């Protein structure tokens, strides 16, 4: 197995503040990797660096052996990295179906003029796109919400819609920013199964998560950062017993410490 | 194939359509629209010349307003210089026809291409601008265009008097000189543009414009190349406006800078906002309110902008989505 995604000494500073500094880690193909750390540790910033929302000021980001540092977000998406957002970003004036269909944007081959002329090839593609969207909705148990306005649904369902939208793009790597935030216990257990399902369909997963039920039970590998720097990495067992991690993160909160021991 | 598609398209039909299309269905709405267009063909048989030319002007401005709606209503970019593209198309036709003796129909591709090219060139550096900044920049473009035409750019635009005596189009040896013939030409082009717009809305490119409008960051992380898509939206919108410019030049057989000034852009902008952004019937309704209604109440014609101004205020306060909004889901 080779590293699908690799950060080499990557860092970004805003003004004088080093939000992320000298961060190196690798995500193996087919793994589920978690990036954890206390609030404000820079996890979302790392995601924004990988997906091109921010441009790293130091170091390199490589995907499938190719350097993608500083690429535009759409080019990185095209390379096969898709993401969800900590604050869900669904298209507000669209239905669940339309939102998930949007994920198929890169799979659509039609040119604008084919669309305006409604040529047969374009119409065939529209049909295929709609059918494929429907399949994904069924797979994630969202088909009964297909016609609902996306942003009117419960939080947990919206998270699933956003996930479905990224999966519709058939990415190689999916990056989930706190997928369990706002979910109840049942939903978060269901999320574990969903994440395994994504991995089993051949997609590598990188996630930021606070919910230790998710982090400790689904991940192959955990990277811990604090103040924008990596302080530990390893499997769940190793992280659980790492004194630095316990001090910086897990040991800080009685309840969270209980959850993981 | 249709039969196979049916269950799927039914299952994905959107709740919360406008009342009209919900009651009669999308297919029915299209049939009614098609019927209205066919009825329109009989305008020359039923009305006098004055009304025929009003209907022709409605068709021409309908096309311009629809093209503005691609940029403003669908892609969500504040284009307040759209009369400029309209003017470029009109001037291209006028110059090629009067100065170089080209037949009118031969000028159409160039009117479209030059307008689209200017739209794309202008858009490329401007699309990084957001909202109000883009709006001011496009006003600047419109001002430059009008000034250039007034100052007889390159000695070919005729100064503030413009270009007169634009020829009549010939089609298969027939001269389209009468009011009726010109109306039919405009009406057929409007019909074509309506079909193109409908297709656009059902295509990936049309949807991409809406993705960008609703959430640009989410769109780009789904692989939308926002720079390319926005530039293309500007080019297509400008190109269609250029096409309408040709029709305009033919209709009134003269082009002058005063037809394409900033206030015309404001009118187009207002038509889209008041009628309903991204809504084909909404934009046509807005165009009718702006260009047909004043003719019906001709005694009050001088109050056109006053009435439309109050209507704009009322619509924005009471119905910000426009008089006839696009069918969409409502949360």
UniProtKB/TrEMBL annotation, chain A:
InterPro entries: AAA+_ATPase, ABC_AA/LPS_Transport, ABC_transporter-like_ATP-bd, BCA_ABC_TP_C, P-loop_NTPase. CDD domains: ABC_Mj1267_LivG_branched. GO terms for molecular function: ATP binding. SUPFAM superfamilies: P-loop containing nucleoside triphosphate hydrolases. Signal peptide: none annotated. It comes from the Bacteria. The keyword Signal does not apply. PANTHER family: AMINO ACID ABC TRANSPORTER ATP-BINDING PROTEIN, CONSERVED COMPONENT OF ABC TRANSPORTER FOR NATURAL AMINO ACIDS-RELATED. This is ABC transporter ATP-binding protein. It holds the Pfam family BCA_ABC_TP_C. The keyword Iron does not apply. Residues 5-252 form the ABC transporter domain. Keywords: ATP-binding, Nucleotide-binding, Transport.
From TrEMBL, chain B:
The keyword Transmembrane helix applies. Keywords: Cell membrane, Membrane, Transmembrane, Transmembrane helix. InterPro entries: ABC_transp_permease, LivM-like. It comes from the Bacteria. The keyword Transcription does not apply. It is found in: Cell membrane. It holds the Pfam family BPD_transp_2. The chain crosses the membrane at residues 51-71, 83-102, 108-126, 133-150, 170-197, 232-254, 266-293, 305-324. It is a multi-pass membrane protein. Its main location: membrane. This is Branched-chain amino acid ABC transporter permease. It comes from Acidiphilium iwatense. The lineage of its organism: Bacteria, Pseudomonadati, Pseudomonadota, Alphaproteobacteria, Acetobacterales.
